[in-house]
Amino acid sequence: MGLLVDTEYLDFQLQSGYLRSIASPSVTLGVKDFSSLVGRSGQDLLMQVRNLTQTEKTFAEITAGLKKIEAKKYHPDNYLPLFRQDIVPLLQYAKEQRLLLAVASSTALNYLLDILDNCGIRNYFDLIVSGEDFESSKPHPEIYLSVLKALHVAPEEAIAIEDSSAGIAAAKAAGMDVIAYEEKRFLIDQTQANLICKNMRAIFCHIKSLRK
């Protein structure tokens, strides 16, 4: 979801504060640790939080804490100013060219639909899928494999646009080419991507070039 609405850095800040609050006194956390959570969800995220913090909190308690973060992150007052409006020309072009568009996000479906509706872009997408509907979360390819199957598209005919390490790994494992939206504010490994672009305009230009 951070690709459409720039929530990744907000998520990074909120999760950093939460991890520090529950970490064992003997644990020192750094930017690399916090960055490793970006793009993760579900059991994978819970395990990572437990491993990093060495907390004595139960998974249920950690889940409750993370849900509070999610509710704050996806409040309209927080995410609407972060909408990447420069993605709209790309969405319009895709529909004009009759290209299929899908959202494959780790975000909970209720938040996902609210964001797409409030940003006015839900109708551009042929398929909207939430990671909460799958047993395995990114970096596992399950969500992307499901999207490809539902749209009857071969992996080599699809392109994933991602910004997190987990998302890039998931798409690559599904056999897709990946364009990464460059992220330099924290430590995100995007080297698996086929191409790294600095902004949405550059991504749009590259996709148009593939259609010539």
From TrEMBL:
Kindly list the cofactors needed: Mg(2+)
Q: Magnesium: present as a keyword of the record?
A: yes
Pfam families, sorted: HAD_2
Q: Which domain of life is it from?
A: Bacteria
Q: Does the keyword Metal-binding apply?
A: yes
Q: Which UniProt keywords apply?
A: Carbohydrate metabolism, Hydrolase, Magnesium, Metal-binding
TM annotation in the entry: none
One GO molecular function term of this record is: hydrolase activity
Q: Which NCBIfam families match?
A: HAD-SF-IA-v3
**UniProt xrefs under PANTHER family:** 6-PHOSPHOGLUCONATE PHOSPHATASE, HEXITOL PHOSPHATASE B
Protein name per the record: HAD hydrolase, family IA, variant 3
